[in-house]
Fold each of these.
Amino acid sequence: MEAVEKALHGIKPLAEILPPGTLDGGDVLVIGKTIYIGLSTRTNEAGIRQFAALVEPNGYTVVSVPVSGLLHLKSAVTYLGNGQVILAPAYVDPSYFKEYHLLKLSEAEAYCANCLNVNGTILMPEGYEQVRKQIENLGFPVIELDMSEFKKAMAP
């Protein structure tokens, strides 16, 4: 923490999530002024409450989203952009994201939810041709990547 404080000194105010609170960055998904935080094995309610107290005064809304069977929220949900969300309903309840257009994945395709929008291009795991086509049909260019080593680490 000291190294982070030193590196960011004077740039932005820092705040800590204090024990018993825990918050993992992989559980934090920001879409506009709404911050979805996965309740997972790495993030707990105390951490979510502390985070909400920090950001809600700045106009953000925090939504706690239960995650089951995966490491963290962003393993199951990604905001693609333009109101489009890719989601694995086997691990996250889609009703938390009902205001968005949802690209729902089958359990066999669930790993594709673990993708990333970089400057409008979606980086996604290779080997999921149908999902790639669906994302492209939404208007996003796609780059497929070999994610086999990362996939091994996705278990909770």
Amino acid sequence: MIELFTDGACRGNPGPGGWGALLRKGDRVRELHGGEAETTNNRMEMTAVIEGLSALKKPSRVHITTDSQYVMKGVTEWMPNWKKRRWRTAAGQPVKNTDLWQKLDALLSGHEVTWEWVKGHSGHPENERVDALANLGIDELES
């Protein structure tokens, strides 16, 4: 079992954004982060999961912990219907961030994934760490 903790951040929405991911398997921990000059918080939340899953070398059992209801519900509740409707909402509008949803869908198909939501900024150690990594991603853009 691999644990993946993810977070995204944005200074302004849209604005400069960052993402952070922490992968843990047993005693081994790998931290990842990055940023984009002009983006949204939701795109950074999604990018954190995409980058974390992209770092895996082989199909795995992955437990993803996120503070993003948007990402978790998007994958577990909304995406099946979006796909049936050719990436359109129930109202017939194009799904926002389709490029990232499709990338995430493809990455998830190679793994056995479970999800857990945690409240952001509530003292959860790994969530606090990936929040710091996401903000580091923004800091590095601005330096």
